[in-house]
Specification:
Strand order of the largest sheet: 5-4-6-7-8-9-10
Oligomer: single chain
Structural class: alpha/beta
Number of helices: 9
Order of helices and strands: HHHEHEEHEHEHEHEHEEEEEEEE
Length: 333
């Protein structure tokens, strides 16, 4: 039997952010039963594909909601007034996803726990963001995360530099001169534009791309992007973040495009010709379990193709056919 779902949000936060591999399945099954009972959209979808708590006994039995539902429906569990509504940037003419967030505290807990797990304290870095500022895009989950990490950094030069690339170039050179540990975080098209115009050698800077061409450039593979950034800016590896509007958690790659999830998040694969055939590893279309998504839907069927290794690490191969290009999505082949 799955573990009982804690009644208080603080209990669930403690449970998932201290989760171990052995109780992930119990938490996922408890979240499924909770969302089946309290999320009318998800329950209707689950019933349509013949799944309910009586016949869902393993994580691979859980139905995953197509991510497109966040464009066409209000995906919430329970009734609440959201503290925030995250919206995807999309491209001109596209329908954007909307994620109603009951608790910004859970989102902050999620990205802070994950960042510290993979990179340590934000206070150890000068954090430079090639992103729109919070004032320009306060409905972007990525911008909200970057603004919070910048504030925690406490470094006087940390900040948003999307519209100040010349200043950013000088800043990076001055930080390199004093061997300051730095994180340069940016959407892909902005990093490529910057690297083309301001080639330099960065030895003390982590470059992290978050995906997203937004029609600004020809779509490149991740390998092409990383090769270009490495040649122009000189790091031994390019880091990546895998996140999206519909999730409150992120996976990270410290090089070669191989992503790792925090313990409360898991990526699986489904067969392209059978969306209910879900496997813990292999090649297919990526499904994501994000236990931080308790107030929306924890089980998301993405439109990204990928490879998942036996240990849970994964590669993103590209976008599936006919899926929308999203502002912070990963690159299509």
């Amino acid at each position: 039997m799955p573990a009982e779902l804690p009644k208080q949000a603080s209990e669930w936060n403690h449970k998932i952010f201290s989760i171990g591999e052995n109780n992930f399945a119990d938490c996922a099954l408890a979240a499924f039963a909770y969302q089946y009972a309290g999320n009318s959209i998800y329950a209707a979808f689950a019933k349509a594909v013949g799944r309910h708590p009586g016949n869902v006994h393993a994580v691979t039995d859980i139905p995953f909601l197509p991510i497109s539902f966040f464009k066409t429906h209000t995906v919430v569990t329970g009734n609440f007034s959201p503290e925030a509504v995250f919206e995807s940037s999309g491209t001109t003419g596209s329908i954007n996803s909307r994620h109603l967030v009951k608790s910004l505290n859970r989102y902050r807990n999620s990205f802070n726990h994950a960042f510290q797990r993979f990179y340590g304290s934000p206070a150890d870095y000068c954090i430079l963001a090639l992103l729109p500022s919070y004032l320009e895009r306060n409905n972007s989950s990525l911008v909200v995360m970057a603004a919070d990490l910048i504030a925690q950094s406490g470094h006087p030069q940390s900040g948003f530099y999307l519209n100040n690339r010349q200043e950013l170039a000088h800043m990076l050179q001055s930080l390199e001169a004093v061997e300051q540990k730095t994180l340069l975080l940016g959407v892909t098209f902005a990093l490529l534009d910057f690297a083309a115009d301001f080639p330099m050698k960065l030895n003390h800077t982590i470059i992290m791309e978050t995906g997203g061409m937004k029609g600004r450039r020809e779509e490149w593979t991740r390998a092409q992007v990383h090769d270009f950034l490495t040649a122009q800016l000189g790091p031994s590896a390019i880091h990546s973040e895998y996140g999206m509007t519909e999730l409150l958690s992120q996976a990270y790659s410290t090089g070669n495009g191989l992503f790792q999830c925090p313990p409360w998040m898991k990526v699986m694969v489904r067969a392209e010709d059978d969306p209910l055939s879900v496997m813990p590893s292999g090649r297919g279309i990526l499904n994501v379990i994000d236990l931080a998504n308790l107030d929306s839907c924890c089980f998301i069927a993405t439109e990204d193709a990928g490879d998942v290794e036996a240990g849970g690490k994964f590669y993103v191969i590209g976008r599936t056919d006919n899926s929308d290009l999203r502002g912070c999505s990963l690159m299509a082949l």
